[in-house]
Design goal:
The protein is α+β, with helices and mostly antiparallel strands. The chain contains eight helices and 17 strands. The strands form two sheets. Strands 8, 9, 10, 11, 12, 13, 14, 15 and 16 form a nine-stranded mixed β-sheet that branches.
Length: 305
């Protein structure tokens, strides 16, 4: 389905969706010098709408720009306000929000320190990234032949557009083989993450997730770690191998787009006895209560529109 909407915020101006354009010689189009966020806004049970963990997403956007060396030319509060304004301008109760900053037209070539930095913010309706059935019954995953980034090859803590070619190749590889999502190993052969999600495994009430070494610090990941610990699970952040993933009782992905999606199969091996397993089901239910505004304990994570 083609993306469509009413308004896009571009460099401080709210404009019609189809008028938000850039030049074909925009630096980021040629060299991947952009950085972005994926954010969700949810319709709450009380009729209001709220953006999930807005401050953390905006902070990560600023961090990405600093790491890349092309910092945002706007203030933190201005970007926050613009995100909320875009949701309102598009009349959306629930949506996915995409802020992106990118190096614009100017010098061509790898070194272009004086090119302008543009910022755009769009929002559109988008359901479950890995499908409604995936949310309910789990998805099939395959370990990709493509390795995740080494920390001294790409800046893995920055959500840089160019980094995602690695993800595109891995996702295309496994989709063409009939699977739903790619799992990627780090340069040492340990499980890193998926093409666009973080990964968790569970045995009983012990949950393990990849440490923040060569992976992006996922905001949904952080939310689930806190939520699981609050519910009495032991959560450890340490490397694990592919065969440990095969023999887990449960496995699931987390991400803004994927939310909390169970994994029912990896490399044609069934994960656990049933999907979702008890830990996944409990955490998934609790997470959806939070984003719908049902659990007031975590209302600090919601920025009301």
């Amino acid at each position: 389905m083609a993306l469509t909407g009413k308004k896009i915020w571009l460099d401080g101006e709210m404009m019609d969706w189809d008028k938000a354009k850039v030049h074909v010689l925009t630096h980021a189009l040629h060299y991947g010098t952009g950085y972005f966020e994926g954010i969700r806004c949810y319709a709450l049970e009380d009729g209001r709408s709220a953006v999930f963990r807005l401050d953390e997403h905006v902070r990560r956007l600023f961090d990405s720009g600093k790491i890349l060396g092309f910092p945002l030319p706007r203030s933190f509060e201005e970007i926050k306000k613009a995100i909320l304004d875009v949701v309102r301008a598009n009349g959306l109760k629930e949506c996915y929000i995409r802020p992106i900053a990118f190096v614009g037209l100017g010098e061509m070539g790898l070194y272009a320190p004086d090119n302008p930095i543009h910022i755009a913010i769009a929002a559109w309706s988008w359901g479950a990234y890995l499908g409604d059935d995936g949310i309910k019954n789990g998805i099939r995953a395959k370990v990709s032949s493509y390795t995740r980034h080494h920390v001294n090859v790409m800046m893995t803590k920055s959500k840089v557009s160019g980094n995602y070619i690695n993800s595109v190749l891995a996702k295309s590889e496994v989709k063409n083989a009939g699977y739903d999502e790619a799992i990627m190993l780090d340069p040492d052969g340990y499980v890193a993450e998926a093409s666009g999600e973080n990964i968790f495994i569970a045995r009983g009430r012990r949950i393990k997730t990849t440490p923040l070494t060569s992976i992006l610090a996922g905001i949904t990941r952080d939310s689930v770690v806190e939520l699981a610990r609050d519910k009495g699970y032991e959560v450890v952040e340490e490397r694990f191998t592919r065969d440990e993933l095969y023999t887990a009782d449960e496995a699931f992905f987390t991400g803004t787009a994927a939310e909390l999606t169970p994994i029912r199969e990896v490399d044609n091996r069934k994960v656990g006895e049933r999907c979702p397993g008890p830990a996944t089901h409990e955490l998934q239910s609790a997470f959806f209560d939070i984003i719908k505004g049902k659990d007031k304990k975590y209302s600090r994570w919601l920025a009301y529109v």
